[in-house]
Amino acid sequence: MTRPDGGPRADANGRLEDAVADHLRVELVRFVRALRRAGASVPANAATTAGRSLAVVGLGDRDRVRSALRAGLLADRADFETFDRLFAEFWRRLAAGPGDGDSPLDDVDGALAPFADPADEAEESDDATDGDDGGETDGDSARSLAESFAAAVTDESPDGGDEDEEAAARYSPTGAAEAVDGGFPLDSADLDDTFAALTRALADVRGRRFGPGDDDPDVRRALRTSAATGGAVLSIPQRERRRTAVRALFVVDVSRSVLDAVDRGFLVDFLRRARAAWDDSRVFFFDEDVREVTDAVDAHTAAAALDALDAAEARWGGGTRIGDSLARLRETAPEAVDRHTVVFVVSDGLEMGDVAGLERELSWLRRRADRVLWLNPLATAAEYEPTARGMAAALPFVDGLFAFAGERDVREMARQLCRQGAGGRVGYEFDPRRTAAATEGTAATDANGRPTARSTRETRGTRTNDP
Amino acid sequence: MTDRPTTAFADVTEAEIRAAFEAEDYVAEDDIVTTVLLALRLGKPLLVEGEPGAGKTELAKVLAARFGSELVRLQCYEGLTAEHALYEWNYAKQLLAVQSGGAGPGGGGNAATDADLGPGPDADPRDPSVFTEEYLLERPLLRALRSDADRPPVLLVDEIDRADDEFEALLLEVLSDFQVSVPELGTVRAARPPVVVVTSNRTRALSDALKRRCLYLHVAPPSFEKETTILERKVPELDGLVASELAAMAARLREEPLRKPPGAAETIDWARAVAALRDGGGGGDAGGVGADIADSAAEDGADEELSPETVRNTLGCLLKEVEDVERVDDRLLEELLAAAERARSEA
Hints:
Chain A is an alpha/beta fold. Chain A is built from 19 helices and eight strands. Chain A has a six-stranded mixed β-sheet with strand order 5-4-3-6-7-8, sandwiched between helices. In chain A, strands 1-2 form a two-stranded antiparallel ribbon. In chain A, helix 6 (145-156) runs parallel beside helix 13 (302-312). The radius of gyration of chain A is 27 Å and the shape is globular. In chain B, helix 10 crosses helix 12, helix 11 crosses helix 16 and helix 13 packs across helix 14. Chain B has helices at residues 14-23, 30-42, 56-66, 82-85, 91-100, 111-117, 140-146, 165-177, 208-212, 224-234, 240-254, 264-280, 288-298, 308-314, 322-327, 330-346, and strands spanning 46-50, 71-75, 87-89, 136-138, 154-158, 179-182, 186-189, 195-200, 215-219. In chain B, the strands form three sheets. Chain B has a five-stranded parallel β-sheet with strand order 2-5-8-1-9, with helices on both faces. Chain B: Residues 102-129 are annotated as: Disordered.
């Protein structure tokens, strides 16, 4: 949008054009920054491309401008919703013209307040405070898992309270929460084949064995094939290491609503197998903050690991701040995730914090990781729907949402991933056990044969209300 | 980044693109037209994502056909390498040339002597006598860059998500500068950049580097109205009312959590199957199951409502996974037919 002569325009029309061009540039920059703040993946050169696009299509038609900006600024369908939401504000400000209020250049480098909802700003402020508080607990990571969480429990429940009441308010309304701990033997042999199948389905990191490829010359094969041509080597086959290894990050929600719904013995066994069999797996527990427990899961016996899990369990009503926990994870251990990492989030998606923050962090995680799989114990119920607000917000950012309460769930997950690939259409909604239960109307038991949410609610009374 | 060559479509208009789509019976919404216009005028590669069967590949074919350009298609797959995508030397021909003494290191001498001695220690392995155009095998990327046709070709890099990360990296130089580096020949740069269309089924995340170089277009599954229009254009032999019925049922099926939701391509196949059955009237088949299906379909008449039997018997054209077919039980079939009935009554 620079002028051909590069010099100042002397006439009034020229000044007006300059003002409009400045206004457009500023609003475009605001828009791009607002998109990034909202977690959208906007390439670094996108604003330039978008500006050139606007120069082609003009500003006469709102839909055309939206299409042009979307094509230039975005690179992922998942960001369309965020884009459309922010575009309305962009268009309103653009239409208001350069003379609206203060100089548009004044707050370009500011906090983009006009794009943000004041309530969101307040929440972000609160979040920042929370983050600071979280910072004070940095030292906790040096303490033992049991100590740190035990301290949290003690500090946060001075009055004791009515735990049953609190629990009733914390459970997600969309799935079962039946206590099942103690029902699964540690180091179950049943999990061997299932886990091996899951490993095959997820393997994306090169292991030790070689296969056809293009990394190195395969001298042995070249010599072998040269026998057919009298020793003349006509071509040199290449080889590379086969993708047989998995790198994983586990982020495990240790709130009571989760640990009551998943078999703890199974959970510990699963984590320990991942540590043992996969290339480099790290395990973090979280409720309102996040702690790395890789050593606790890895170093001792299975029973000791189970003790650690018990010690880590958050109290009733302790709350789960998934977004904040992921933010802490990003700040303190960003190296735990790279483009070969499969991230497993084990949680019921009951977010007690800021949902926008959760979206932001998951967007980061999704961009950085190879894939993100969400394991939800509540999804074992045939009537489960991801309507809890945290789960609903997280859904666009995950490659698959799977039921996760026992060995049969892992088997189904492995089956789907083997067949469809992690990028395919996989998840709880494709679980044939769920379809069968829905068809037969047998919602009394879940996919693992346990009572479903409906029956649980009937026996336990009200268990509702995602906050 | 070097200066970009001038795009050959810098003066293309929106009306011309709309006309191109119309002429090829490609039903394109405004956002598709706008994005294609930008890709052509800015000379940027276009990354098209969407469900299989949404018409991504067809988009490139339409552009090539309408603008009189050659369509150079590179179908990606796991393990795709530079040799298959870019260029390769004709090793057998080189070997024969060296052995015959007509070319290669020390070329021009006595054939027997050269063959016996082989290349000497001072021979340049990149002797131009065997690393020339004569021995070069162009693969799609290089062919698209070196095209000297009047109109630049349309380079379709199809299903990039099937290829490895390494191939994506190889593609970056082409996408950003329309050039590739061939060690033996130097840098090959397109005099007139091809129109590049990269498609992806979103089976894996693409690299930021690739996305940064492209304009982005997501082709959503067609709406009921759009799909009806598509069927009317692509399957003109089918009655319009029946087309709306089929489109309504396809739209209803997409609401189900299917393994592979039907795309527009599958709906077209389905419509053609139904049209063929109605047209054949069952007379073309000597007997067996095919005759039964045709008979049941023939009973529908050219513009009569689709019968449950016809829908059931032809679902294989629409659904490609056994689990998806099994999902269509009696209850869902009733809902499909109800949707079809509504569409017919509102048409």
